Amino acid sequence: MIEIATPTSNSICNIAESDALFSELSEDEISFYESIKPALKNLVKEPSTESIQKIMAISKSL
Amino acid sequence: MSFQLTDQELVSLYIKGEENALSHLITRHKSRIYTSIYLLVKDEFLAEDIFQDTFIKVIKTLRAGRYNEEGKFLPWVLRIGHNLVIDHFRKEKRTPIITNGDGFDIFDVLGIHDESIEEKMVKEQTYDDLKALIHLLPSEQKEVLIMRHYGDLSFKEIADLTEVSINTALGRMRYALNNLRKMMTSKELTLKS
Q: Chain B contacts of A13, Cβ < 8 Å?
């Protein structure tokens, strides 16, 4: 894979503009992404209740 | 306390001493944050540890008054989690970052892992198929895909977090999608719905 050579400054871009760039993906690429979204959604995992309880306990102790 | 409070309002309440505000923030964002960490480290127990460490850093920064109120909460937390993942791999002397100076060919990776991935796919027959393919992506492509899809970060936020240009972040997303498609086609995989 050839790394894309691009300037590193983001100062001229705002979030809206950067998301507009996503529309520059081809229809084919966007269509593929949409097709795998349901499967990606099924990969969502939840942290354990114990982890959250531990975090809250630490917060209360500080 | 209403879940309709914005992240910023909940952060302000927490800083003023309202512990429930932190609980609401965690509830609101835990899936995105934990999933992003888990898909990077591929280990549930490790992901739990890093998830906890992430929020411990969040708590300490908020209590120390060092949180930038102009920033968005979720990207900030994801950045902390991402950095902790990187720290872990550096500590373990394994780096998820693969330098691609001489080019990367997805079929080289498929060739090396072909047999083991085939066995896993046949055995599990679940959405783990896609998860396995995601894990085969070069780390920087996997990062962008995870941060975009699960973290819901903009490409600017991803670029800032990974310290590359927006165009590079977008390019990595394109490569990630195209490589996933190549792998799925090569392995004749179809995702079960």
A: 156, 166
Note whether B55 contacts A: Cβ–Cβ < 8 A.
Answer: yes
Domain at B180, CATH number: 1.10.10.10
DSSP B16: T
The pLDDT tens digits of the residues spanning B4-56 come to: 899 999 999 999 999 999 999 999 999 999 999 999 998 999 999 999 999 99
Q: Does B154 touch chain A (CB under 8 A)?
A: yes
Residues B84 and B110 in one domain: no
B31/A43 Cβ within 8 A? no
Strand, coil or helix: what is B12?
Answer: helix
Other C-beta atoms within 10 Å of B154: how many?
24
Which of B62, B91, B120 is the last residue before a domain boundary?
B91
If one counts the domains in chain B, the total is 2
The closest CB to that of B31, out of A39, A46, A60, belongs to: A46
CA dist A35 to B127, B128, B132, B178, B192, Å?
13, 16, 17, 13, 11
Residues B111 and B182 in one domain: yes
Q: What's the pTM value of the predicted model, to 2 decimals?
A: 0.75
Measured between CA atoms, the residue of chain A closest to residue B29 is: A46
Measured between alpha carbons, how far is residue A34 from residues A16, A31, A37, B123, B168 in Å? Answer: 20, 5, 5, 26, 21
Residues B16 and B82 in one domain: yes
Q: Check residues B188 and A58 and name the one with the higher pLDDT.
A: A58
Query: What pLDDT does residue B44 have?
Result: 93
Q: Are residues B139 and B75 part of one domain?
A: no
| Domain limits for position B11 | 7-91
